[in-house]
Every structure is written in C-alpha cells, then in structure tokens.
Write a structure and sequence with these properties.
mainly beta, 4-stranded antiparallel β-sheet, 4% helix, 30% strand
Length: 174
C-alpha cells in the first residue's frame, strides 16, 4: 500500500475528502530481463556437396572479419560482410563459422498495476484498477535473418512484444 492518506507518512493532515481520494492505493509490478538466444549463420547452398541444402549448412566466416557491429539495430544486427558461401570452383567444404556464435536481442519488460478497493456498504466493495503492460514501451526484437540467401540477411523484421497496452477496470465485489 502506498504511504499516502490517513495514518500514513504523507497526506495525513489533509481533509477527509482528500484523504479518501488518495488513501488505500496499492501498486504491483513484474520486471523481466532475459538475454537473447544464440543463433547460427547458415546458407541454403550445399557447400559440402552432401545433399544438406534443405537443412542448411554453416556459412564460412571470413578471416579477420569482426562479426559484431558497433551499434546493433534492426537494420544491421551483425556484420553481414563477415560471412560467405563462395568456394573456389570444384572445392567443397563445410562452413567454418561455428554454431550459435551470435546472440539475438533479449527481453526487457516491466508491467505495472495500480489499484484500490473502496468499501461501498458493509458487504460490498468497488475495485478500481489501472494496468500497464510493457509500461516502458520497450521493443523486444526477434532474431535477425541468419540465412545468407535471404533478402533480409542480418536484419530484424519483427518484434516479439507488443507496444504498451493500458487497461482500466472497475469491479464490483459482493
């Protein structure tokens, strides 16, 4: 319960109407912070000549190329120029980039609620609620496209979360 109103540190010197308005409010919240899932850069080409194109083959990581970018964002989550599926003619090989060497965006979410119960009669109450989901309106992105042949390679095209949602409710308890 918030510290406002009758018998509380703040607002105890207000008149009875003002105390009635600010007294009895309670807050709740849920905070979630999760790191992102790892993912692998692949190619649909059968670079190893083993018939593995339908399941994907690891891409080649170019020597000396940094796979990270300074400020990853939806337009460019990682350095796409660090990967290739080109081999010399007549040469076959498995990709060398490794499994799960990159990490997708994580999740940050804070849901917030404010509510109050008002005694209406001896046996009935009225509950007033305000709830905010994703209250900070923080976008949580899906993993970027990790297939070299995809037109959206290295880009994020959607989010896993919705934008901020606000909900108000009045409930009659008897």
């Amino acid at each position: 319960e918030l510290p406002f109103g009758a018998d509380k540190p703040y607002g105890s010197n207000l008149n009875s109407i003002e105390k009635g308005i600010i007294s009895g409010w309670q807050v709740n919240g849920i905070f979630v912070y999760q790191t992102g899932n790892p993912f692998t850069v692949t190619t649909s080409k059968d670079m190893s000549n083993t018939g593995a194109s339908s399941t994907g083959t690891y891409a080649n990581r170019l020597p000396g190329a940094d796979i990270q970018v300074a400020h990853p964002g939806p337009a460019k989550w990682f350095n796409t120029a660090a990967f290739s599926d080109v081999l010399p003619a007549g040469t076959y090989a498995f990709g060398n980039s490794g499994r799960n060497i990159l990490t997708a965006d994580g999740t940050v979410d804070f849901d917030f609620g404010l509510y109050r119960r008002v005694q209406t009669t001896e046996s009935t109450q009225l509950e007033l609620r305000a709830e905010l989901y994703n209250s900070m309106n923080h976008p949580d992105f899906t993993a970027p496209s990790a297939n070299l042949e995809a037109s959206s390679f290295g880009r994020i095209t959607s989010t896993t979360s919705t934008s901020r949602e606000t909900q108000f409710a009045v409930k009659f308890l008897f």
